[in-house]
Amino acid sequence: MVERRIDHVEVEIDGVRRAVAIDLEESPLGWLARRRGRDGRSFIAPVQLIAGERLRADFTRAGMAPRLTANWDAVTRADRAGGAAGLNASEAMLAARQRVGRALEAAGPEFSGLLMDVCCFLKGLEQVEQERCWPNRTAKVVLALGLDRLARHYGLSAAARGPARARTRAWKAAEGAGGEGA
User: Does the N-terminal or the C-terminal CB of the chain have fewer CB atoms within 10 Å?
Assistant: First the structure.
């Protein structure tokens, strides 16, 4: 029996935060997140993994993967829950398709095909390099750039950023304004 490595990642979809289970053995992104370079850092950052898995989750919800068997969705109840609060299955699928479209548009034409191949169709980097006639080890670099754009689209970053120091504010009334003796 093969032991699966399931990890839980929290993503925000339509303003609702949810825990999503990912199979690290199945996903090429999971493989890249577990591997370390010579400098000891993983090949992709946690925010890149989350962004790629979020794209994959929306792709799966949208029913965009090619079907290998018959489609039995028409036989099921039309009003069943589709994943997003208040949406039926068709509306949830349409919303997921729109999210995928916006994410790929934000990634740009340079990265959208690669993101689809690796994140959604689960192609390995060697296979992508062979299909695109790229030199060895280039897909990893291009994928990292694409995942960075995807993470930026989703509003993800490795660290919280803000001003070095916030402006000081005082919440006291001005002298003589409605106090005692007025």
Answer: N
CA-CA-CA-CA torsion sign (153, 159, 162, 164) = negative
- Residue 51: which residues within 8 A CB-CB, separation 6 or more? 147, 150, 151, 153, 154, 156
pTM for the full model?
0.67
Phi then psi for 23, rounded to 5 degrees? -95, 105
Give 61-77 pLDDT, tens digit per residue: 888 766 556 555 554 44
Long-range contact list for 176-179, CB < 8 A, 24+ apart? none
Of 79, 80, 84, residue with least CA distance to 61: 84
What single DSSP character describes residue 73? G
Using CA atoms, how far residue 21 sits from 10, 41, 78, 111, in Å, is 9, 23, 26, 25
